[in-house]
Amino acid sequence: MSDLLKTTAEQRARKVVLRLEKIDRIFNQGPDQLEILKSVDLEIHQGEIVALVGPSGAGKSTLLQIAGLLEKPDGGLVSIGGKRSTDLSDLARTEMRRSHIGFVYQYHHLLPEFSALENVVMPQMIKGLKRAEAEERGLELLRCLGLEKRGDHRPARLSGGEQQRVAIARALANV
Ligand SMILES: Nc1ncnc2c1ncn2[C@@H]1O[C@H](COP(=O)(O)OP(=O)(O)O)[C@@H](O)[C@H]1O
Ligand SMILES: [Mg+2]
């Protein structure tokens, strides 16, 4: 127990990588106003692994889309790495997503016309990495995920689990 508490205290002392302050999200549905998120505060520290748990419809995806800068809240502040993201231009938000955030969706969203390796390296190349550099990192990630022999497969020639692992490699390429 004391070990657990110690870890938590250590984590608290670490840098805050994501901060949500008083986040509101309201959806207009016909005559109804649905207050899905109301003044939500959240702090995530470097190295922390956090699971967001709640019943279906509670607002988990809505919160993740706001934290991941895919959507804007109706009120409140989002800061990533100490930088306030809520006021950034759309282009700056896109750049922040590209260089600091990795997404693994429920559906893999791999590009069907490209190989597993190309799917992993493409966001890195768009970010400005040279192909050889991006491929070296991409191959290392595929190897870590047990996919060293699947780099040249298109998504349709991978199993469902393998497709998900390629999507995980793509998300981790940023880290
Ligand atoms: N664009 C939208 N317009 C209206 N209501 C929405 C919209 N998006 C989500 N909702 C509602 O917000 C609630 C939370 O959705 P969501 O964040 O996807 O839940 P969770 O991921 O926790 O299952 C749901 O009740 C859903 O119907
Ligand atoms: Mg959801």
State the helix count.
6
Provide the gyration radius in Å: 19 Å
Q: Give the strand content.
A: 15-25%
- Write out the distinct hetero groups bound to the structure: adenosine-5'-diphosphate, magnesium ion
Provide the domain count. 2
Largest sheet: 4 strands, antiparallel
Element-level helix/strand string: HEEHEEHHHH
Classification by helices and strands: alpha+beta
- CATH fold group of the largest domain: Rossmann fold
Helix content: 25-40%
Mean pLDDT: 91
Write structural notes for this entry.
The protein is α+β, with helices and mostly antiparallel strands and 175 residues long. Helices cover 39% and strands 21% of the residues. Strands 2-1-3-4 form a four-stranded antiparallel beta sheet. β3 (75-80) and β4 form a beta hairpin. It is globular and about 50 Å long. It starts with a helix and ends with a helix. 19% of the residues are buried. The structure holds adenosine-5'-diphosphate and magnesium ion (MG). Magnesium ion binds at residues 60-61.
